[in-house]
Specification:
Keywords: Membrane, Transmembrane, Transmembrane helix. InterPro entries: DUF4407. This is DUF4407 domain-containing protein. Pfam families: DUF4407 (PF14362). The protein is mostly helical. The protein folds into 2 domains: 156 residues, no CATH class; 114 residues. The protein is 79% helix and 7% strand. It is built from 11 helices and 2 strands, in the order H-H-H-H-H-H-E-E-H-H-H-H-H. Strands 1-2 form a two-stranded antiparallel ribbon. A hairpin with a 5-residue loop joins strand 1 and strand 2. Helix 5 packs antiparallel against helix 10. The protein is elongated, with a radius of gyration of 41 Å.
Length: 314
């Protein structure tokens, strides 16, 4: 079990297991310390990555898992830069400190936006009215324009139908004149003219026109209902489209107006910053172990081999 844990720790940190397995208990304890700290940081950022992908990127559960895995991969690679570097690399340590502050800020913002979700939603209700006032007139004007056009079309169709219906009432039957041309025995053309009355063919136009008018009225009724429910629909759209920057502005207002909110935010920031700097601080104040000596010895041995090869080549 312990060897498996050591192998897992070496996999995370990039430390060579074959060399570590021959080292003292002190080197192994240091690896376990780094592994525990790295797992805590990875677990925290896995939750942050999942929450961010779900809330702001609108990802499905498997997309959220991909986002969480990406954050874990990123954290491991960043921490490896510190773990595998020497204690004398001050430039890297300063750079890691800057990254730690930035990541602590990002993590605190995302976590607090979930913790203060109800407070943010309450505060957004005040700003929602202003957004609705900006959006509502334009959409309402467009719907009214469409309704006016449909009213004109319906009136035109009804007028056309009335004209046809009046004509059918006045002239229920129309006279059709037919000519029959034939030839007698002397091959003279004989034209026979006959007249007969048939129902007015315009009557067949009434049913399709009625269906068209009914369809137009139904469509107009739908647009009327849309116009009546336009404000609730706009409010629902605003609530559905959660913006990261919008919530960030609301969060900033909460922090500047409420000392309790600012205190809670500061606690989370200090906590995350401490986690981010945990490995870095441990690296700064760690003592040299036999693993470090083995690595130094291995490097010196390779240098000697290179020098010998160079001498032989000369």
């Amino acid at each position: 079990m312990r060897n498996g844990w050591l192998k897992f720790g070496c996999f995370l940190t990039g430390i060579n297991y074959e060399i570590l397995s021959t080292c003292s208990e002190l080197s192994k304890k240091r690896l376990l310390k780094y592994t525990s700290a790295l797992l805590i940081i990875c677990l925290l950022w896995m939750v942050i990555g999942y929450a961010f992908t779900e809330r702001y990127l609108k990802g499905t559960w498997y997309v959220c898992l991909v986002g969480a895995a990406a954050m874990i991969f990123l954290i491991i690679q960043i921490e490896r830069q510190v773990i595998l570097s020497s204690r004398d690399n001050r430039g890297l340590q300063v750079f890691r400190g800057v990254i730690a502050i930035a990541m602590a800020l990002i993590g605190t913002v995302i976590i607090d936006q979930h913790l203060f979700k109800d407070d943010i939603d309450k505060r957004k209700l005040f700003s929602m009215d202003e957004e609705v006032k900006l959006i509502l007139p334009g959409r309402a004007e467009e719907l009214k324009r469409q309704l006016d056009e449909m009213d004109s079309i319906i009136l035109s169709k009804e007028g056309e139908r009335k004209y046809i219906a009046d004509d059918v009432v006045k002239n229920a039957f129309v006279t059709i004149v037919e000519q029959d041309i034939s030839y007698d025995s002397a091959r003279k053309k004989v034209v026979t003219v006959s007249k007969r009355k048939v129902p007015n063919p315009k009557a067949s136009l009434l049913e399709p026109m009625d269906k068209t008018i009914i369809s137009l009225r139904k469509e107009k009724a739908k647009k009327d209902s849309l116009l009546l429910g336009l404000r609730p629909q706009i409010e629902a759209d605003i609530k559905a489209n959660v913006g990261f920057l919008d919530e960030l502005e609301v969060m900033f207002d909460l922090l500047t107006e409420s000392g309790v909110s600012a205190c809670a935010w500061s606690i989370w920031f200090i906590f995350l910053l401490g986690l981010e700097l945990f490995i870095l601080v441990s690296k700064l104040y760690e003592t040299e172990t036999d693993y470090d000596r083995r690595m130094q010895q291995q490097m010196e041995l390779h240098y000697r081999r290179i020098d010998l090869l160079k001498q032989q080549a000369e």
